[in-house]
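Reviewer 2 asked us to include a model.

Predict the structure of this chain.
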Amino acid sequence: MLLSLKETCEQELGKSVYASAMILGAAFQKGYLPFDLLDLEGAFARTMKKTELENNLLAFHLGRSFSIENPSEVKEKK
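Predicted model (C-alpha cells):
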C-alpha cells in the first residue's frame, strides 16, 4: 500500500514525500486519530512551509478518499 501511495503522490503532486500526509488522511478517515479535522488542518498550517501547505492538504484529503470504497463519503469528521 505504501508504494502505491508514494506512486500516487509522485503522479498527482510531483513528489513522493506527500505519502506521509496521505497516510495521516487515511488514518483520520478511519477514526484512528484523536483529533478533529480543524485541529489537523491547523497543525498543518502552523508547521509547514507555506509553499508546501497546499500539496500536503491535497495529499491528506487524497488519503481520506483512498481509505474508503466510495470517495464521495469523505465528510467533515468532528
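Residues 50-66 form the longest helix (17 residues). The chain has a mean pLDDT of 86. We have added this to the supplementary material.
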